């Protein structure tokens, strides 16, 4: 394959003399040409970092601020920092990966994306940082490195976020107005759904146009309550099948929500932001969503709108193998180091990762109303009240796995689509089969 | 006609830049991509040659067939929708009056807007709770007709095809106006003297004169519809449960979302093959008619 | 020309009076136009609303016209620089497409030679290529020849993928132009280049305007190539600024609308300019023809 490709490349290179002539004057060399710094003794190091904190939200501003600070503190590093829109980030990274032209430091999601990059030999461990800063590593929460440890004793990234994906947000005023108990059991949940439906209030707002939403926010926690965590970890490794009755039952619980009209009409054609707005406008009594809703609401909702919102976990399920009171979540994404980065550039790159993911970085990110996996005291005045409510819920809760952090990309896509299918009247058995097939095919 | 050396060198030089740029930046990459289509490759790491296996898998995947069916819905709706409407509008709006200029600009406007805006506004028109369409239906007493237009797999592909057609009429209108204006006034005068007016003139004089343009427009409809991507990505993302999946979105997801690069490349090759087939058919049919 | 204008002037007013059909047609056209203009109107009013207002009153007139979205989107998206980049890339690619495309269309429509049908077929194939499948090969290739991350990395692929349409429209248009015009010019002592430059190119202005509008919109709005082939922040084009305000978990609609409002202004201006050009081309064509 390699050899033949090279042949093609050579052929094309010959064909393209014209092009090269056109582009000649504009040629920029991406390789590191280490010129001595003006007047300085240190060598200039060239470094590129790619991330998707391109927007205007507090978290993105915080991360960009950390990178700018690193730039200021390290005048010998010529840092090319690229903020790439989220919509195109995956595509951009996949394309350069295919061309083996990775940037030195880049933002990767925990789960299938970082796993694929590791399998392709594009990453190198950031373990030297943990030797240099042992306290830092010790301060992370349990499980923080689970999805970044691809081989024993080596970590490939440090999470800069805790993606808690499954809070139950509810509108206190609506619950009081219709005299409904905040559900702690499945039966109570079904009662609440019925009462709100009778009163023409949507029970649960859901914006599942991007189909990962229902999987990440609802299924993870719901299924864990039915199957227990152990079963899922086994199934993800191929030691249990998603066609086991216990998982079909879990999907059945989701179907029960659908059949009882828990979600508003057309939930599959509106996006998460629209669902949040629907909820915050008091048209829905509950919303099951992740920590990102905190950030979004902080940016776009008024204080009066947020005041009646409370946060808890989704109800326990009687007779299930898993516990109640848990939240699905896990290490979010982190910064990884390209295999091609060596020497002085590598040292500088590691320090850059530390500048963002180290104690100071984690603090700044937490103060942008984002959940982190790093233990620290939070100054309450620096975060929003809603964030604090959620933060306290997480502190009490056990974290259970999010499905798409453990499934292959193909299997995640399959269950995402499968949940939409159930919402359109599909059968849990069929969805379970497709998921099993996809997971088996892509991990064989 | 290619007699003299001067003529010959003119033709060669006139074609050279177009052919060169086109071959280097379009043909070679697509052949390259076709080549990837024979590999089991994630887009990173090692690749394994698997012959036609990707194509076998494709033909066995019901989603591929659904995507193809959806694409064909788009092709048909484009040919019976965009082309006649654009032609009709071009005939009506040919004269360069102030009124016509305003209408022409309006018809073209959705093309000027980025697909994201078009997708967003139609998302709002179709929105089940606050959508314009449902509100209008309620106001005129057709409450039973209201529904979640983009959700229901029985109708959502048709719901999606309306904005796509609507947004794409503009270019065809322009193409037809440009062609109609090129019919010289002598031809029109001659037609008048011969007594050809109204529909008679349309079918015996006007249409044959611009028939080449109509054929080109149909070719553009076919190739455009089979490559359709942006509007669907914005409006439904190909969902729910892949019910509005198109070949291009199917290819894109396989290539960039689930790391089946080789398979995605095979799908894009298939898109080209199917388009070529349809366009060949189109030429055969339209030739017979003229 | 004069005669036909007179005829119109004489025919139009009484006809609209006499024939209710004509009047009804105009009303229908007007309604169609209003429906079609609505998204633009919606974009404008939405661009000046806060996020809350956008969601609470999506179709209403803004309570207060907020310029904030526009200025913030402009700063955050670095849209001034992006607009200059987009303009450079679009204009160069546009000129290349039009000149090279018309030239090729002329050669293919007027001269018979062995390779002619083959070349036509090849360009037709170009119209069928789904661009996303060429991203990786083009990336690898342009990286090797060292034009990645320059304006050329966008200009060349844009031109290549727009050439087929330019050539096909050009050929279709040229077949309707009688040959005697050129033959006369040849007798006047012009070579082929002279004929092309002095006669054909001006004659083709209507179709060139059409191609220009289509190409302009495609280049101006392209996201995929711009995303993958440009690294340097200072070379980024406009569409990348439009998707900055959506992070996968949520979308800042107000900022997105503001950015889109900025981006759409040049396209409207360009359209209005070229629309005039099509009309002028017609006048020129009919005088000569």
What gross morphology of chain A would you assign? globular
Number of helices of chain A: 21
CATH C-level of the largest domain in chain C: Mainly Alpha
The CATH topology name of the largest domain in chain A reads D-Maltodextrin-Binding Protein, domain 2
CATH homologous superfamily of the largest domain in chain C, by name?
MetI-like
Biggest sheet descriptor of chain A:
6 strands, mixed
Low-confidence stretches of chain A are 1-41
- CATH class of the largest domain in chain A equals Alpha Beta
Strand-residue proportion of chain C: under 5%
Shape of chain C: globular
Keywords (chain C): Cell membrane, Membrane, Transmembrane, Transmembrane helix, Transport
Family (chain C): Belongs to the binding-protein-dependent transport system permease family.
GO cellular component, one term (chain C): plasma membrane
Domain ABC transmembrane type-1 (chain C): 83-274
Topology:
The complex is a heterotrimer of chains A (about 450), B (about 290) and C (about 290).
Chain A: H1 2-15, H2 17-23, E1 45-51, H3 58-73, E2 77-83, H4 86-98, E3 105-108, H5 112-119, E4 123-124, H6 127-132, H7 134-138, E5 158-159, E6 162-164, E7 167-171, H8 172-177, H9 186-198, E8 202-205, H10 212-227, H11 229-237, H12 245-259, H13 272-280, E9 284-289, H14 292-300, H15 303-306, E10 309-313, E11 327-331, E12 334-338, H16 343-357, H17 359-366, H18 385-396, E13 399-400, H19 403-406, H20 409-423, H21 428-443
Parallel strand pairs in A: 1-2, 1-3, 8-9, 11-13
Antiparallel strand pairs in A: 3-12, 4-12, 5-12, 6-11, 7-9, 7-10
Chain B: H1 5-36, E1 39-40, E2 48-49, H2 53-60, H3 62-92, H4 98-112, H5 115-126, H6 132-139, H7 156-181, H8 185-193, H9 198-227, H10 230-235, H11 247-257, H12 261-289
Chain C: H1 2-18, H2 20-47, H3 51-56, H4 68-76, H5 79-110, H6 116-128, H7 135-145, H8 152-174, H9 180-187, H10 192-203, H11 205-221, H12 224-229, H13 238-242, H14 253-288
């Amino acid at each position: 394959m390699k050899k033949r490709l090279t042949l093609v490349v050579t052929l094309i290179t010959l064909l393209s003399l014209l092009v090269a002539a056109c582009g000649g004057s504009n040629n920029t060399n991406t390789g590191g040409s280490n010129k001595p710094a003006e007047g300085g003794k240190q060598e200039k190091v060239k470094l590129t970092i790619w991330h998707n904190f391109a927007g205007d939200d507090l978290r993105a501003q915080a991360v960009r601020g950390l990178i700018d600070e690193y730039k200021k503190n390290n005048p010998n590093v010529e840092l090319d920092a690229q903020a790439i829109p989220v919509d195109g980030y995956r595509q951009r990274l996949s394309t350069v990966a295919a061309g083996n032209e990775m940037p030195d430091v880049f933002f990767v999601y925990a789960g299938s994306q970082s796993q694929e990059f590791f399998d392709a030999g594009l990453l190198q461990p950031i373990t030297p940082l943990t030797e240099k800063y042992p306290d830092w590593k010790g301060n992370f929460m349990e499980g923080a490195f689970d999805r970044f440890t691809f081989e024993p004793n080596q970590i490939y990234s440090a999470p800069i976020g805790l993606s808690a994906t499954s809070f139950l947000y509810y509108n206190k005023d609506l619950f009081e107005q219709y005299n409904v108990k905040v559900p702690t059991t499945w039966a109570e949940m079904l009662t609440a759904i019925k009462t709100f439906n009778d009163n023409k209030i949507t029970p649960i707002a859901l914006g599942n146009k991007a189909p990962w939403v229902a999987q990440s926010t609802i299924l993870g926690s719901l299924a864990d309550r039915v199957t227990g965590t152990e079963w899922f970890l086994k199934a993800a490794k191929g030691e249990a099948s998603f066609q086991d009755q216990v998982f079909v039952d879990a999907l059945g619980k989701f179907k029960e929500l659908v059949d009882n009209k828990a979600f508003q009409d057309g939930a599959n054609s509106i996006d998460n932001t629209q669902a949040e707005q629907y909820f915050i406008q008091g048209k829905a009594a509950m919303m099951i969503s992740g920590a990102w809703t905190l950030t979004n609401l902080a940016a776009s909702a008024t204080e009066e709108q947020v005041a009646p919102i409370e946060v808890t976990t989704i109800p326990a399920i009687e007779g299930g193998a898993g516990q109640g009171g848990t939240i699905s979540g896990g290490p979010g994404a982190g910064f990884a180091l390209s295999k091609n980065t060596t020497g002085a550039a590598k040292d500088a790159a590691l320090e850059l990762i530390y500048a963002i993911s180290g104690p100071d970085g984690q603090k700044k990110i937490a103060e942008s109303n984002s959940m982190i996996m790093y233990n620290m005291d939070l100054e309450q005045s620096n975060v929003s009240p809603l964030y604090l409510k959620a933060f306290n819920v997480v502190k009490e809760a056990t974290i259970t796995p999010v499905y798409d952090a453990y499934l292959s990309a193909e299997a995640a896509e399959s269950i995402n689509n499968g949940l939409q299918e159930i919402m359109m009247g599909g059968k849990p058995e069929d969805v379970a089969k497709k998921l099993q097939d996809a997971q088996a095919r892509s991990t064989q | 006609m290619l007699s003299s050396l001067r003529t010959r060198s003119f033709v060669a030089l006139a074609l050279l830049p177009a052919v060169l740029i086109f071959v280097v930046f379009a043909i070679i990459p697509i052949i390259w991509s076709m080549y990837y289509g024979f590999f089991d490759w994630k887009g990173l790491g090692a690749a394994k040659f698997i012959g036609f296996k990707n194509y076998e898998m494709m033909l066995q995947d019901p989603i591929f067939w659904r995507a193809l069916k959806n694409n064909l819905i788009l092709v048909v709706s484009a040919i019976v929708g965009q082309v006649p409407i654009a032609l009709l509008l071009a005939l009506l709006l040919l004269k360069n009056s102030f009124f016509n200029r305003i209408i022409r600009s309006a018809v073209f406007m959705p093309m000027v807007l980025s697909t994201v805006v078009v997708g967003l506004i139609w998302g709002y028109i179709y929105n089940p709770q606050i959508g314009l369409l449902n509100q209008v239906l309620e106001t005129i007493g057709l409450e039973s007709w209201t529904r979640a237009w983009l959700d229901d797999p029985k109708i959502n592909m048709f719901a999606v095809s309306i904005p796509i057609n609507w947004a794409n009429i503009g270019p065809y209108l322009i193409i037809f106006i440009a062609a109609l204006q090129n019919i010289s006034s002598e031809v029109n005068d001659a037609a008048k003297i011969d007594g050809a007016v109204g529909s008679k003139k349309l079918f015996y004089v006007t249409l044959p004169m611009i028939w080449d343009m109509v054929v080109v427009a149909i070719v553009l409809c076919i190739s455009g519809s089979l490559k359709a991507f942006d509007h669907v990505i914005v409006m439904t993302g190909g969902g729910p449960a892949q019910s509005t999946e198109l070949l291009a979105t199917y290819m894109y997801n396989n290539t960039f979302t689930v790391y089946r690069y080789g398979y995605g490349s095979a799908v894009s090759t298939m898109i080209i093959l199917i388009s070529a087939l349809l366009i060949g058919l189109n030429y055969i049919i339209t030739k017979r008619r003229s | 020309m004069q005669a036909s204008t007179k005829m119109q002037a004489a025919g139009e007013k009484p006809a609209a009076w006499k024939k209710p059909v004509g009047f009804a047609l105009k009303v229908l056209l007007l309604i169609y136009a209003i429906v079609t203009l609505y998204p633009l109107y919606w974009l404008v009013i939405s661009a000046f609303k806060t996020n809350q207002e956008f969601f609470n009153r999506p179709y209403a007139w803004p309570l207060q016209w907020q310029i904030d979205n526009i200025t913030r989107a402009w700063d955050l998206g670095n849209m001034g620089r992006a607009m200059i980049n987009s303009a450079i890339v679009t204009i160069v690619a546009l000129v290349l497409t039009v000149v090279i495309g018309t030239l090729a269309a002329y050669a293919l429509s007027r001269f018979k030679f062995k390779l002619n049908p083959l070349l036509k077929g090849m360009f037709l194939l170009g119209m069928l290529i789904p661009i996303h499948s060429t991203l990786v090969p083009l990336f690898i290739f342009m990286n090797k020849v060292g034009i990645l991350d320059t304006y050329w990395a966008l200009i060349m692929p844009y031109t290549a993928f727009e050439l087929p349409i330019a050539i096909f429209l050009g050929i279709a248009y040229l077949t309707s132009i009688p040959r005697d015009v050129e033959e006369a010019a040849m007798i006047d002592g012009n070579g082929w280049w002279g004929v092309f430059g002095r006669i054909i190119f001006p004659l083709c202005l209507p179709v060139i305007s059409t191609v220009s509008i289509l190409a302009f919109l495609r280049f101006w709005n392209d996201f995929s190539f711009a995303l993958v082939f440009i690294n340097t922040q200072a070379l980024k084009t406009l569409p990348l600024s439009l998707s900055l305000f959506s992070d996968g978990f949520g979308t800042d609609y107000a900022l997105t609308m503001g950015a889109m409002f900025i981006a759409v202004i040049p396209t409207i201006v360009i359209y209005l300019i070229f629309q005039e050009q099509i009309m002028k081309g017609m006048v020129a064509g009919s005088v000569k023809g």
